[in-house]
Write a structure and sequence with these properties.
This protein has no helices and nine strands. It is mainly beta. An eight-stranded antiparallel barrel has the order 1-2-3-4-5-6-8-9.
Length: 125
Amino acid sequence: MTNSATASFTVDGWDPQATEKAEATEFSRVLLTKTFTGDIEGTSAVEMLTAVNETSSAYVAFERLAVSVGGRKGGFVLHHSAGENGHHLIVLPGSGHGELAGITGTAEIVQDDEGNHTFTLTYEL
């Protein structure tokens, strides 16, 4: 059975680790942390790699969540990829632990005009 959980989150930390410009494209490594409230409660730590130039940008990231979802405590890893073809968030198969062991699914992040983030997880357990 497919379930859905929605939360808002804040970015608590944004720590650029390295930046390198090769030709016209800038590469960056960023560590960030988040706090989730709503149907999903807890925190996450993200390691992100970005590439940005005058005409496009893309990133990949792995996000380690320590959360409660639907009353179940545990965690999982979310694999992010974004670029010209959109933004894709997938639960890394086999990464669930605690009461979230076996979780699979996808997620979506929407940012409103005021900069508030909404996170929706569509999952199966």
